[in-house]
Specification:
The complex is a heterodimer of chains A (436) and B (364). Chain A has helices at 122-131, 144-148, 172-179, 181-195, 209-222, 240-248, 268-278, 310-316, 371-375, 382-390, 394-399, 410-414, 421-435, and strands at 26-28, 35-38, 48-49, 56-57, 62-65, 74-75, 80-89, 95-103, 158-163, 199-205, 226-231, 263-267, 286-292, 300-305, 326-329, 336-338, 351-355. Chain A has 436 residues and is of the alpha/beta class. Chain A folds into two domains: 1-29 and 114-358, NADH-ubiquinone oxidoreductase 51kDa subunit (Rossmann fold, 3-Layer(aba) Sandwich), CATH 3.40.50; 371-435, no CATH class. In chain A, α1 (122-131) crosses α4. Chain B is mainly alpha-helical and 364 residues long. The chains are: A alpha/beta (436), B mainly alpha (364). Chain A: GO terms for molecular function: 4 iron, 4 sulfur cluster binding; electron transfer activity; metal ion binding.
C-alpha cells in the first residue's frame, strides 16, 4: 500500500466537525443595508483612503490604495455612497479606519466579457493581481503580488496549492473546490505562469475525497499539468511549512520563506480569486465564508461582500439555535473570538463560528508531561517557553526560538494542565520585541 | 436577535479531552490489577498497608492544601502517590512505616519543592527510599504469597528472590544463573508454572515471577498485572513507549551480557527474562520512571533518561550491596532530568543538516 503523505513532526487530530456546513452549497448573501469596509484587510501597512465622506463609489472601484511595499488596495464591493469614515476594531483586534458604505437600490451586473490570460505575460498578470487587491485568503492575508514577485536570485520549481483546510468546522475552501474547481485550477495555472513553476501540486486532506476526485477529473478534462495529492488528516497541515514538508519533503528553515526552498504556496481560495481578477476583471471585494458551528440554526457557506457585518451573516443563517458561548472569526484553532456582532468581515474571513458552551477546566501546574513538545509541529518546547515568559525572562524565551512559534495552538490543544500556552506565547512575543 | 453573552479568549477554542485529574486517576486505575493481585496473594494485611499509605497521603495533601490555600486533593496526584507508596511496601511492615513514607512523600518530596509539577524527585520513590534506609529490616522482610504459602519455607519467604540470590552469590555460591540458583536452594514453583515451563522451556521460577508467585512488595510481584496496566496507559496515550521499553531493554541486555560475571558465569551468562520480571523493575519502568514531573520532557531526553535508569539498575543489582536498585536508579536519574531537558532539545523544524552546512559556509 502506498503511504499517504503528511508532515512528520508534531500535529494534532481534532474532530473535523465539518458536517454542519459541508453539504450546503455556496449561497449569495442578499445585499446588506450597510457595509463596513476596513482599510486594513491585509498583512502590512493599512491602505490609504481615496474617498471621503459623502462620495459616491462604484462597485469594484478602488477606494483604498496600498501604502507601502507590503500592503494592498481595497475596493468597494458595491455601488453606493460613503456615509462616514470611522474607526473600527476588527475581529483580530486590529484597529483601523473603515468606510461605512450604504449600497444603492440597484446594483450593476457583473461584467460578462472575459480576458484571455494566455496572451498576457507574467509581469502584466502580476500588476493586475496587485490592482485587484488580491491577498492570501487562507487567513494570513499576505498581499499576493508581493508573494508572487520572485527576486532575480531565487528560482521556483513548484507551486503548491493549499486545499487542505485543516481547521475544523470550515468548509469554504471545500465548497470552492467542488463548485468552482475549474476556476480555481485555472487560477493556479495563472500563478504558475507568473512564478515560472514547472510543477503545480494541489494538496487536499483525505476527509475531502469528493474534492480530490472532482479536481482530478477537471485536470484530466482540461489537460492541465497539475498533480492532485491526497494528504493524511492532521492539523496544522494547512500551514505552508507543514504542507511543503508533506508534499515536497522540504523543510523551511527558521525565518525563511517557501521561496528559499524553491516553492510558492497559495490557498485554493486565492487561486479562485486570482482567476476572477484576471479573467473576469473582478477585484477582490467578496468571498466565501462558512457560517457554522453548533449554535447556528442553518449553517451555510455564504458568498458575501467584504465589509458585511457579522450580524447580517448570522441573520441570513437563521440566527442562533441555542445561546453561543463564543463567536469566532476564522477556524477554532487559530481564529479570533470577538464580542461585537457589528464587527465586519474582511478579505481574510474564512469562517464565522458560533460555538456552544464547552466543559470548563481549571488550569493546574505544568506537569512536564511533554505533550506540548510532542505536538509542536516545529519542535519547540512550549512548556519551557511558558516558564520563561511567566517568569518574565523574555530574552531567554527569544533565545529559545519563541519567534518561530506560529501560534497554531497544538500545544494548548493537548495540554492536560490547560495552561494558556498560545496566549502566553503571544504576550511573550510582544513584550520580548519591546525589550529588544 | 437577542444578544448572547459572549466569551472572548485566546485561541485555540477547542481542546483535547484530557486533564490533569483524568490522567492521575487513569494511572491509578492502571495500577489496579497489580494492587488487586498483591492484595489477593498477600491477604488482608496488604490492604491495610495500602489503606494507611493512601489515607496518609490524602490527609497530608489536604492539610498542606489548607495551609497554602491550594485545593489539589481531587487532582488525584496525592492518591496516586499514596497508592504507589503502599505498593512499594512489604505486606508485613508495621503500619507506621507506610504512614511515615507517605508523609515524607507528600510533605518533603512534593510540597517542600513547590507542590505538583515542581518536585524534582518522584514523591513515592523518595518516600520509599526514606523508610527503606531508616527501617531496613522490616522493609526487607517479606512473606510468602498465598499461591506458594505451604511450599515456601519461612527462611526463603522472608526475602525477595533477588536478595536471596545476591546473598548466595556474595556468600560464594558461584556457577548458577538466577533461577537455577534459587531452585537449588529449594525455592518452590507453582504447578501452573511448572506446566508452562515444560511447554515453553522457560524456567518455572521465571514464569512465577512473571505471574506474581514470589515474595516481594505488594505491588511489584506480578509483572503480568503491571504489563496489563502499562498497555492500558499506552493505549490511552498517557505514557509513550520511550521510557518503559528503553528502561526494560537496557536493563535486560546489560544483565544478559554482564549479569553472569558476579556469579562466575562470565559474559553473556545473565538471564534476560527474569531480570525484567523480578524485583521492582516492571513497576519502576512503567509507573515510576514515567512520572511526568520528574522525567524529561522530550522523547529524545526520555530515552537518555531511561538508558541511565537501565544502566544504574543493572549496576546496583549485580554490583551494589543493597537490594534497592530500581528506586535508587530512578531517583538518581531524576536528578539528571533538568540537565537532560536543558541540553537534549528536539531538532527544530527546518534545522536540517543541509541548512546548517549552508549557514556554516555563509559564515566562512
Amino acid at each position: 500500500m502506498q503511504r499517504i503523505p503528511t508532515f512528520s513532526k508534531g500535529g494534532v487530530h481534532p474532530d473535523d466537525r465539518k458536517v454542519y456546513s459541508r453539504s450546503a452549497a455556496i449561497e449569495r448573501l442578499p445585499m446588506p443595508s450597510e457595509l463596513i469596509v476596513a482599510l486594513s484587510q491585509h498583512l502590512g501597512a493599512p491602505a490609504k483612503a481615496l474617498k471621503a465622506k459623502g462620495d459616491t463609489v462604484m462597485k469594484g472601484e478602488k477606494i483604498g490604495e496600498a501604502s507601502g511595499f507590503i500592503s494592498s488596495d481595497v475596493h468597494s464591493p458595491v455601488s453606493g455612497s460613503i456615509k462616514e469614515i470611522r474607526k473600527v476594531t476588527l475581529a483580530n483586534s486590529v484597529q483601523c479606519d473603515a468606510f461605512v458604505i450604504v449600497p444603492d437600490e440597484v446594483q450593476p451586473a457583473d461584467p460578462e466579457e472575459t480576458v484571455d490570460w494566455q496572451s498576457l505575460d507574467g509581469s502584466e498578470l502580476l500588476s493586475s493581481i496587485k490592482d485587484m487587491g488580491i491577498v492570501g485568503m487562507g487567513g494570513a492575508t499576505f498581499p499576493a503580488h508581493v508573494k508572487f514577485s520572485i527576486p532575480k536570485d531565487k528560482k521556483v520549481d513548484s507551486f503548491v496549492v493549499n486545499g487542505v483546510e485543516c481547521e475544523p468546522y470550515l468548509t469554504a475552501d471545500y465548497r470552492i473546490m467542488l463548485e468552482k474547481g475549474e476556476q480555481a485550477l485555472e487560477g493556479a495555472m495563472i500563478v504558475a505562469k507568473i512564478v515560472k513553476a514547472e510543477r503545480v501540486i494541489v494538496g487536499v486532506e483525505m476527509n475531502k475525497p469528493d474534492c480530490i476526485d472532482h479536481l482530478k477529473e477537471i485536470v484530466k478534462e482540461k489537460g492541465y499539468p497539475i498533480e492532485i495529492v491526497g494528504l493524511k488528516m492532521k492539523y496544522p497541515q494547512g500551514d505552508e511549512k507543514q504542507l511543503l514538508k508533506a508534499i515536497l519533503n522540504r523543510e523551511i528553515p527558521s525565518g525563511k520563506l517557501p521561496l528559499d526552498v524553491g516553492a510558492v504556496v497559495s490557498n485554493i481560495g486565492t487561486c479562485n480569486a486570482i482567476y476572477e481578477a484576471i479573467v473576469l476583471k473582478k477585484s477582490l471585494y467578496e468571498r466565501v465564508i462558512s457560517v457554522t458551528g453548533e449554535c447556528i440554526a442553518n449553517p451555510k457557506n455564504v458568498l458575501a461582500p467584504v465589509g458585511t457585518k457579522m450580524s447580517d451573516l448570522l441573520d441570513f443563517c437563521g440566527g442562533f439555535s441555542k445561546e453561543p458561548e463564543k463567536l469566532i472569526s476564522g477556524g477554532p484553532m487559530m481564529g479570533f473570538s470577538f464580542f461585537d456582532t457589528e464587527t465586519p468581515m474582511t478579505k481574510g474571513s474564512s469562517g464565522l463560528l458560533a460555538l456552544g458552551a464547552q466543559k470548563k477546566y481549571r488550569s493546574t501546574a505544568c506537569l512536564n508531561c511533554g505533550r506540548c513538545v510532542a505536538a509542536c509541529p516545529i519542535a519547540l518546547m512550549p512548556a519551557k517557553l511558558y516558564r520563561y515568559i511567566s517568569n518574565g525572562e523574555y530574552e531567554e524565551a527569544m533565545n529559545t526560538s519563541l519567534m518561530d512559534c506560529k501560534e497554531c495552538g497544538c500545544c494548548a490543544y493537548v495540554c492536560p494542565a490547560h495552561l494558556p500556552l498560545v496566549h502566553t506565547m503571544k504576550t511573550g512575543k510582544k513584550l520580548g520585541r519591546k525589550k529588544k | 436577535m437577542n444578544k448572547p453573552t459572549l466569551t472572548v479568549s485566546s485561541s485555540p477554542h477547542l481542546h483535547a479531552k484530557a486533564d490533569t485529574a483524568s490522567i492521575m486517576w487513569s494511572v491509578s486505575l492502571a495500577l489496579a490489577p497489580a494492587s488487586l493481585w498483591g492484595v489477593y496473594v498477600f491477604g488482608f494485611r496488604s490492604l491495610l498497608v495500602l489503606g494507611v499509605s493512601i489515607l496518609t497521603a490524602l490527609l497530608s495533601e489536604y492539610l498542606l492544601g489548607k495551609l497554602y490555600k491550594e485545593y489539589t486533593l481531587w487532582d488525584g496526584s496525592a492518591f496516586l502517590t499514596g497508592l504507589l507508596v503502599g505498593m512499594n511496601m512489604s505486606p508485613s511492615v508495621p503500619l507506621f512505616i507506610p504512614f511515615l513514607a507517605s508523609v515524607f512523600a507528600i510533605f518533603v518530596a512534593k510540597w517542600v519543592f513547590g507542590g505538583l509539577g515542581a518536585n524534582w524527585a518522584n514523591p513515592a520513590l523518595a518516600g520509599r527510599v526514606f523508610v527503606f534506609f531508616s527501617f531496613t529490616t522490616p522493609m526487607s522482610s517479606y512473606v510468602a504469597p498465598r499461591t506458594l504459602a505451604s511450599a515456601l519455607p519461612d527462611a526463603l519467604a522472608s526475602a525477595t528472590p533477588l536478595s536471596l540470590s545476591k546473598t548466595a552469590v556474595s556468600g560464594g555460591t558461584l556457577g548458577f544463573d538466577g533461577s537455577s540458583l534459587l531452585s537449588s536452594m529449594g525455592y518452590p514453583a507453582t504447578d501452573l508454572a511448572q506446566n508452562l515451563s515444560a511447554m515453553t522451556g522457560i524456567s518455572a521460577f521465571t514464569i512465577d515471577t512473571f505471574l506474581g508467585n514470589v515474595a516481594g512488595c505488594i505491588g511489584e510481584v506480578s509483572a503480568l498485572a503491571l504489563l496489563i496496566g502499562g498497555l492500558y496507559l499506552l493505549a490511552r496515550k498517557i505514557i509513550t513507549w520511550h521510557i518503559p521499553v528503553t528502561y526494560l531493554l537496557s536493563t535486560a541486555i546489560l544483565s544478559w551480557i554482564f549479569g553472569g560475571i558476579p556469579s562466575g558465569l562470565g559474559m553473556f551468562g545473565g538471564s534476560f527474562l527474569s531480570s525484567i520480571f523480578s524485583g521492582g523493575l516492571m513497576l519502576g519502568a512503567i509507573f515510576m520512571a514515567t512520572d511526568y514531573v520528574t522525567s524529561p520532557i522530550s522523547h529524545k531526553g526520555q530515552i537518555v533518561f531511561a538508558l541511565g535508569c537501565g544502566f544504574f539498575t543493572f549496576l546496583f543489582r549485580y554490583f551494589g550491596s543493597m537490594p534497592e536498585a530500581v528506586s535508587v536508579s530512578i531517583l538518581l536519574m531524576n536528578i539528571f532530568t533538568p540537565m537532560i531537558d536543558r541540553y537534549i532539545i528536539p531538532r527544530k523544524f527546518g534545522d536540517t543538516r543541509a541548512f546548517r552546512k549552508k549557514q556554516k559556509e555563509a559564515r566562512a
